[in-house]
Amino acid sequence: MNIIDTIMTTFTNMEFLSAIASTIFIILIGYYCRKTGTFNDKTSKVLSGLVLKLAVPCLAFNAFMKDIDYLQLKQSIDVLIWGFLFLIILIFVTKPIFSRYDDVTSMVMSNLAIFGSTTFFGIPIISAVFGDEGVIYANVFNIGYRVLLYSYCYLQMSSLKFDKNNMKQIFLNPVILLTFAGLLIWVFQESLPQVSVTDGNYAFLRFDMTAPWIYKPMDYLGSLSSPLAWLAIGSTLGGIPFKDATADSRVWYYAFIKQIIVPLLNVLLILVLNALGLSHMAYVAIATTVVMMATPPATVAVNYAIGFDKQPLLASNASLISTVMAVIAIPIWLIILQMLSQIGLV
């Protein structure tokens, strides 16, 4: 397939393009509603809370309500390992990238580059584009991410020792709890007690088959994660003046690293590992990790910077500019990855 055919195939895939268009369109609706007063300054916080505490946990759990697929399981193991490994690589790579700045600024920018808004920003996009398979990989990737976010990032930002409260944040987070619950059911469903339903026998915890009255409400709630997250993003952008943020050259450098260099490094390293036979990640798994790494900085990381007075204004401005950049960059990355898939590179 030549480059022209690849481009044509990519841009005539209506399901793929519709998912990207939906993301941008609903974000713009949120922006318009904030600018016109339909949304107020508390709307994005309320929507964000619903997404993080209700919709995404349901989405994470229900993604595993399916028959075991051993190829997906193998991919998930690769994604889990890569989730830890790549973030650790970034810890070392980002330090020299931001070494032009003073120690505190460099540390803050490094952490904001490593830890993106994977749950709130990334998973809704992945769900829209790649469905349950992408959601499974995204949540597995997030296991290593959350461990390091609440340990390494906390220690860096606070200059304090790790404490047991952060262990609670890691493992008692609703998304993590339901991810582990769904993952264990998915992996061990053939060993669990079976229940006979109309079209066969299923593990009693396969609620999609054995208890649709539990599964369906969670499915409805999970389906809200994408539109609510995009409306909240648009509302946030609509309520913040751009002038002050754009005047700081550091945030543009940061956004370039976060939305371009980090995802690019992610793709290149995976392709090298695949070529060496050390990894076997396919298109959806690779694309999922790219979207996760191209997200703007994690709200938790930004809050650390603000709470511990480590360049709070820089962190806030970087979050704003990076969010705008991510809205542009992530669709571009998805199109690039789709094209690479068409020519067999991923």
Automatic annotation (TrEMBL):
Coiled coil (UniProt feature): none
Principal localisation: membrane
Ranges annotated as spanning the membrane: 16-34, 46-65, 77-98, 110-130, 136-155, 170-188, 220-240, 252-276, 282-306, 318-340
Domain of life: Bacteria
Keywords: Cell membrane, Membrane, Transmembrane, Transmembrane helix, Transport
Name of the featured protein: AEC family transporter
GO cellular component: membrane
UniProt-annotated location(s): Membrane
One GO biological process term: transmembrane transport
Membrane topology: Multi-pass membrane protein
